[in-house]
Amino acid sequence: MKRKTIKSGIALLCLLGGIYFYYTQSDKSVLSDLAFENIEALALPEEDPNENYRCYGWGDIECHGDKVERKTSGLR
Questions:
Q1: pLDDT at residue 51 above 70?
Q2: What's the mean pLDDT in 10-37?
Q3: What is the overall mean pLDDT for the chain?
Q4: By its UniProt entry, which InterPro entries does this protein fall under (predicted)?
Q5: In this model, does residue 14 exceed pLDDT 90?
Q6: Where are the domains of the chain?
Q7: Are 55 and 68 within 8 A, CB to CB?
């Protein structure tokens, strides 16, 4: 009788361990698709890479990561 109880206890522990392992290893989506789209949108540059422009002086306008006085675009 004692052996049967020990075997049943071991089987129950194995079953509970298997259930715990299954639920902890299941595929969980950490970020949603919308979050990935937002990350991709933030990674893209805002300026058109084909647009030609020049930056002059020091001021409040952002140009190539610097603050400039004037940004002239449409140059070829």
A1: no
A2: 84
A3: 79
A4: NVEALA (IPR025905)
A5: yes
A6: 1-25
A7: yes
Q: Which one is predicted more confidently, 19 or 53?
A: 19
Query: E strand or H helix at 33, and its extent?
Result: helix 33-43
Distances (CA, A) of 75 to 13, 37, 55, 67: 74, 33, 12, 20
**Is the distance from CB of 50 to CB of 28 less than 8 angstroms?**
no
Which of these, 48, 74, 72, 70, lies nearest to 59 by C-alpha position? 70
Residues 75 and 51 sit within 8 Å (Cβ to Cβ): no
Look at phi and psi of residue 37 and say left if phi exceeds 0, alpha if psi is from -120 to 50, else beta. alpha
Tokens representing 70 are 């004037």
Q: Backbone phi, then psi, for 30, in 5-degree steps?
A: -75, -45
Give 50's pLDDT tier (boundaries 50, 70, 90).
low
* Four-residue CA torsion sign, 12, 13, 14, 19: positive
